[in-house]
Hints:
Blueprint: E1 6-12, E2 20-25, E3 33-41, H1 45-52, E4 63-64, E5 69-76, E6 88-91, E7 94-96, H2 102-105, E8 116-117, E9 129-133, E10 138-140, H3 146-149, H4 155-165, E11 173-175, H5 182-193, E12 197-199, H6 201-211
Parallel strand pairs: 11-12
Antiparallel strand pairs: 1-2, 1-4, 3-5, 3-9, 5-6, 6-10, 7-8
Helix pairs in contact: 4-5
Amino acid sequence: MSIPKTQKAVIFETNGGPLEYKDIPVPVPKPNEILINVKYSGVCHTDLHAWKGDWPLATKLPLVGGHEGAGVVVAKGSNVTNFEIGDLAGNKWLNGSCMGCEFCQQGAEPNCPDADLSGYTHDGSFQQYATADAVQAAKIPKGTDLPGVAPILCAGVTVYKALKTAELRPGQWVAISGAGGGLGSLAVQYAVAMGLRVLDSKDYRRWSTWCH
């Protein structure tokens, strides 16, 4: 696949400044990175926080936002062994981490003090070509519906981790706050697939009556 030298992207130079749709260079993957031709990208509320710059952690500037990108691997660094050209891949919130600190060793890479974050400290998915650390990039099975999987790379991961760390067993009840929203509706689907019993509003009213 021929890779162009420039691409279209949505970028801002300052926090809260204009969002510009313009040509920027296509990034060259580092030895540990893959280059993804982004076909679809979701939009997360975190992207608004990154643009506003209202979180304590400073954003990269200028910045291309986005961390729910799904596409095709078109190039890879010399050290990458887990992806091949033509594979489907996603760049998610966690783009890279040190893999050596206490958090990384315990499987809590998002808490790594040196974590690299797509669309925050690393240019993200609001561009045609985005780089991602091959260790943290999502490997997407061939034939997957890319527009459907893009939001899973943030919203889906968020609620899946919550259910996973709750250490519930099939048949147990789970209460999902905000189940009617985007993340909540995904959580309900995951919970059902995990064999859990989801507490809905009628169940809550009945339980509340019993408790009182």
